[in-house]
């Protein structure tokens, strides 16, 4: 991909044009949250300037425009996941989407003795809700453990997905290891024993197409703020037959059909799960971000990110005191590289890099069971998005060279 293209994309993001402490901002924390292109910022501003009202409530022209914006955004998100409009529930984020499945599906359809299979690499959002379901129902948590290269093996899937499995919860891409899970193999095994599959797409959706029908998953969760859109917006895909039989999670206004003194009936489809006033500005931003990505196109984005990842991993391989977690190859890895510098605490690494204008994340990345499994307390994580450039990767590598010197090692 020619460099001028990369810079064109970067120039769409006003925050990246601003200097950070007098230096060019090298933003390598997009797995935590992405920045926003001007096209998304303008779409949100335009909504509040021209179309803001409470959707589904008024019959006047402005309220109808707000309703169109709300349902139009749902259609856009459904297209993104290759789902039907009625299979998309708007939520606040991946965490709320996964909790919705846990509290509505998990608490009602899982029982004592059932097994919930999940990877030890899950983000706490796709782990703690299942612990609570297990505690409440008597179901058992069964963990999948990756091999030394960070990948799940077929043997491990065969061993852990059994006749007792009722639900498999898995991240399509781990927010620490950056590796794509063998989703197709998991779905085949889960469906063969009658279990449902809950896919956490928080880290996958920014980097690759997620076709829920082709993957044949039952639920899929994502956060808009990792997709160049505002915070406070997320989505849940739920297969129509499942969504229909699931009871509401939150209740109140807008999710009902009728309410009497002693009872109520529920709205149809995704609205059953959308209680209270919606974040329509966020939804509009979400749809605009998906349009922006669509305009660039998956081929261009994926090629660009793969080249940057390859450059980063090759550069890191030349640093003998640096350990990368998960197989250090760009193929099958997306957007995320976690690492440690020998004898330097990750927070010190991140602080030294920050002084050089490079923003990375350090900590347990909401994946404490994985940290325990890897035998580390925490690590550094550099993550990519479409606005990163070769210059960003080189700035990371150059500043990393400096870390041990600054620490006197
Ligand atoms: N799952 C994964 C794999 C993630 O990376 C994250 C965010 N770091 C989440 C779930 C939770 O996302 P959110 O905080 O937007 O709910």
Automatic annotation (TrEMBL):
Enzyme type, top EC level: transferase
A biological-process GO annotation: cysteine metabolic process
Listed SUPFAM superfamilies: PLP-dependent transferases
UniProt xrefs under PROSITE patterns: AA_TRANSFER_CLASS_5 (PS00595)
Keywords assigned by UniProt, alphabetized: Pyridoxal phosphate, Transferase
GO molecular function: cysteine desulfurase activity; pyridoxal phosphate binding
Alphabetized InterPro entries for the sequence: Aminotrans_V_dom (IPR000192), Aminotrans_V_PyrdxlP_BS (IPR020578), Cys_dSase_SufS (IPR010970), Cysteine_dSase (IPR016454), PyrdxlP-dep_Trfase (IPR015424), PyrdxlP-dep_Trfase_major (IPR015421), PyrdxlP-dep_Trfase_small (IPR015422)
E.C. code: 2.8.1.7
General function of this protein: Catalyzes the removal of elemental sulfur and selenium atoms from L-cysteine, L-cystine, L-selenocysteine, and L-selenocystine to produce L-alanine.
Family: Belongs to the class-V pyridoxal-phosphate-dependent aminotransferase family. Csd subfamily.
UniProt-recorded name of the protein: Cysteine desulfurase
Organism of origin: Faecalibacterium prausnitzii
């Amino acid at each position: 991909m020619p460099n001028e293209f990369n810079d064109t994309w970067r120039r769409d993001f006003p925050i990246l044009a601003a200097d950070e402490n007098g230096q060019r901002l090298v933003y390598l924390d997009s797995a935590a949250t992405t920045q926003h292109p001007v096209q998304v910022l303008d779409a949100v501003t335009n909504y509040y300037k021209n179309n803001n009202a409470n959707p589904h409530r008024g019959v006047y022209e402005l309220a109808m425009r707000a309703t169109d914006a709300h349902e139009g955004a749902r259609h856009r998100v459904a297209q993104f996941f290759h789902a039907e409009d009625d299979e998309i529930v708007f939520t606040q984020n991946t965490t709320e989407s996964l909790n919705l499945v846990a509290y509505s599906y998990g608490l009602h359809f899982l029982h004592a003795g059932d097994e919930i299979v999940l990877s030890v690499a899950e983000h706490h959002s796709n782990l703690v809700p299942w612990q609570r379901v297990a505690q409440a129902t008597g179901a058992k948590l069964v963990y999948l453990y990756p091999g030394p290269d960070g990948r799940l093996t077929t043997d491990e899937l065969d061993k852990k997905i059994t006749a007792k499995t009722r639900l498999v919860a898995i991240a399509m891409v781990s927010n620490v290891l950056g590796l794509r899970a063998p989703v197709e193999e998991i779905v085949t095994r889960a469906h063969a024993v009658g279990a449902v599959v809950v896919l956490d797409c928080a880290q996958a959706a920014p980097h690759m197409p997620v076709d829920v029908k082709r993957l044949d998953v039952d639920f899929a969760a994502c956060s808009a703020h990792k997709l160049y859109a505002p915070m406070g917006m997320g989505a849940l895909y739920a297969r129509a037959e499942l969504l229909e039989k699931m009871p509401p999670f939150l209740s109140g206004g807008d999710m009902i059909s009728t309410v009497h003194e002693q009872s109520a009936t529920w709205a149809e489809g995704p609205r059953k799960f959308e209680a209270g006033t919606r974040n329509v500005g966020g939804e509009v931003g979400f749809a605009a971000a998906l349009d922006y990505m669509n305009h660039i196109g998956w081929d261009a984005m994926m090629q660009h990110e793969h080249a940057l990842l390859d450059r980063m991993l090759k550069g890191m391989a030349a640093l003998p005191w640096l350990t990368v977690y998960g197989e250090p190859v760009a193929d099958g890895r997306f957007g995320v590289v976690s690492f440690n510098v020998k004898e330097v605490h990750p927070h010190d690494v991140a602080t030294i890099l920050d002084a050089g204008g490079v923003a990375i994340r350090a900590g347990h990345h909401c994946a404490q069971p994985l940290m325990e499994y890897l035998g580390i307390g925490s690590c550094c994580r550099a993550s990519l998005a479409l606005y990163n450039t070769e210059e960003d990767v080189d700035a990371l590598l150059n500043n990393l060279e400096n870390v041990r010197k600054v620490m006197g090692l």
